[in-house]
């Protein structure tokens, strides 16, 4: 299904937590990292009964509109937060002045969060998120999305500040349901009409707690469980012939249970050692006979459940060299199981390389030896972080061309099946700094990232982005801010010829942003405006599907009322 990020909005997010390598293993077995989107909570404040904001904005590149509402009501022991976002966009204009057909979309997102104080140290929290999108264009694909619907809910109990051995506890049950349907009925020329609906349903729970420090040790423990069911199919309607039906994701069920343990050891006032361990058991099986028959044609026996055992170990060391300078080193062994598409996908079209893909139920787990070095320097006005990282991935999963198989998608260049290759290497570096000067009226930011990947024969891996850097300079004075941005991406000439990649040109883009706040007795009115892609550059990033050009000059404005 689509990535989880499309079902959230900035207005209903509290924070985004990014962990590299095995650092985020508490949320699941992973080799590359984790992304944790935390929803905004209701706020209990008896002094402020009602608060919130309303906003409306317009963006010229796609003639798009955005309307946002967020409200929080609080009593003495409970609070309720409600937010909603409506977006609608037409086809956008690229830097050549051409309208990109089938890039329109429309969506509605709402979320509700409730909180109740059971005692001064404990609370119950409930969250619900609804996201509906429709008429979502995909200009790089032969089909659009007729609808994408997500329903996400959770109920949790939190206990903090206890005087006994159990200092913190967090227990949560959650459920989500996602339904998605591809649609080609709005395309003027379709060789063969197709229907492609799919759905995913998940039910899970976790329980985690932190114990009272014992000597130099701080222990954290988490146990989690989830059940996931997915299925997708496709019906093709050739002219003058009977419809053809197949399972693109045969209905399959997966059960995963994990146990995570972390021990934070304070060696002395300047040194800390963190040990993390996660073990995970996963079992998956196909649940419909047609799906089993499809893979039998490819030579796979999938009548029995496929069981996996995953292990993740990470060790990190933090050294505070001075009040200003910190060194952080980490390393470990991490594993991940193949995704649903890698295991059970059946003739899924990938526009990136113009191939149909079939899964491989017998894939091995990927195993990665990860290492990372971080240098952090911070003063009152200046902060800088430099990170170098590397991974040696064994049983790396990649698609390989199968010349004996015929394509299913009209115009596809061939069929690829997922395979394990002996190993692959990924290494790179990234940096970020922030400098405030002239009495903090000016703020200078810069970030850059470089990544390189090679397979076991030292050939470039596909889908590796080139060096990219973003620099911004912001001027602040009372209620006014002005900001200039520059984004530079270098040329990518380290491409995978086997994958069919082509070299892509570098680009540089400039943006201007501004904002002003009007203070009133009980309200605050904020106006923001800017120009993205100031010089109307015609460009595409290396990982953009079909090398579709990105939007050209985009002039936007937004008015926000806070109360």
Automatic annotation (TrEMBL):
GO cellular component annotations of the record: cell outer membrane
Main location: membrane
Keyword Transmembrane among record annotations: yes
GO molecular function: siderophore uptake transmembrane transporter activity
Compartments reported by the entry: Cell outer membrane
Biological processes annotated in GO: siderophore transmembrane transport
Family classification: Belongs to the TonB-dependent receptor family.
Name this polypeptide is given: Iron complex outermembrane recepter protein
Lineage: Bacteria, Pseudomonadati, Bacteroidota, Sphingobacteriia, Sphingobacteriales
């Amino acid at each position: 299904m689509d990535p989880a990020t499309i079902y959230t909005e900035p207005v209903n997010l509290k924070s985004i937590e990014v962990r590299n390598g095995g650092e985020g293993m508490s949320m699941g077995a992973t080799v590359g990292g984790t992304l944790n989107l935390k929803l905004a909570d209701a706020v209990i404040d008896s002094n402020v009964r009602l608060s919130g904001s309303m906003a409306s904005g317009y963006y010229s590149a796609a003639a798009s509109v955005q309307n946002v509402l967020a409200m929080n009501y609080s009593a003495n022991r409970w609070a309720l937060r409600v937010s909603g976002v409506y977006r609608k966009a037409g086809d956008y204009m690229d830097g050549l002045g051409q309208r990109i057909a089938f890039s329109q979309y429309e969506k509605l997102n709402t979320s509700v969060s409730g909180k109740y104080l059971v005692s001064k140290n404990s609370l119950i929290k409930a969250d619900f998120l609804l996201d509906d999108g429709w008429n979502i264009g995909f200009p790089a694909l032969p089909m659009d999305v007729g609808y994408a619907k997500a329903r996400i809910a959770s109920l949790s109990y939190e206990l903090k500040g206890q005087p006994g051995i159990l200092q913190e506890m967090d227990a949560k049950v959650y459920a989500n349901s996602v339904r998605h349907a591809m649609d080609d009925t709005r395309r003027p020329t379709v060789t063969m009409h197709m229907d492609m609906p799919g759905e995913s349903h998940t039910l899970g729970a976790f329980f985690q707690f932190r114990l009272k420090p014992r000597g130099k040790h701080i222990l954290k423990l988490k146990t989690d469980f989830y059940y996931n069911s997915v299925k997708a199919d496709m019906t093709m309607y050739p002219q003058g012939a009977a419809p053809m039906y197949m399972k693109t994701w045969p209905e399959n069920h997966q059960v995963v249970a994990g146990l995570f343990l972390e021990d934070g050891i304070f060696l002395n006032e300047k040194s800390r050692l963190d040990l993390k361990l996660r073990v995970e058991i996963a079992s998956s099986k196909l649940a419909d006979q047609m799906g089993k028959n499809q893979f039998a044609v490819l030579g796979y026996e999938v009548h029995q459940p496929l069981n996996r055992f995953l292990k993740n170990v990470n060790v990190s060391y933090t050294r505070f060299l001075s009040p200003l300078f910190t060194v952080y080193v980490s390393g470990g062994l991490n594993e991940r199981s193949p995704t649903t598409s890698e295991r059970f996908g059946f003739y899924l079209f990938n526009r990136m390389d113009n191939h149909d893909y079939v899964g491989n139920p017998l894939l091995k787990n990927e195993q990665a030896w990860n290492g990372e070095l971080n240098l952090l320097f911070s003063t009152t006005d200046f902060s800088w972080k430099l990170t170098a990282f590397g991974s040696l991935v064994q049983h790396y999963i990649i698609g390989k061309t199968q010349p004996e198989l015929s394509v299913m998608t009209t115009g596809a260049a061939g069929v690829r099946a997922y395979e394990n290759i002996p190993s692959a290497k990924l290494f790179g570096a990234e940096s970020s700094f922030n400098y405030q000067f002239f009495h903090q009226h000016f703020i200078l930011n810069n970030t850059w990232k470089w990544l390189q990947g090679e397979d076991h024969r030292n050939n470039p891996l596909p889908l590796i982005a080139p060096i990219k850097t973003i620099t911004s300079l912001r001027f602040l004075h009372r209620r006014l801010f002005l900001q200039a941005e520059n984004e530079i991406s270098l040329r990518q000439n380290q491409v995978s010829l086997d994958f069919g990649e082509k070299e892509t040109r570098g680009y540089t883009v400039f943006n201007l942003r501004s904002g002003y706040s009007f203070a009133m007795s009980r309200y605050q009115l904020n106006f923001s405006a800017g120009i993205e892609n100031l010089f109307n550059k015609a460009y595409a990033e290396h990982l953009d599907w079909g090398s579709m050009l990105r939007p050209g000059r985009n002039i936007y404005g937004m008015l926000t009322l806070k109360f």
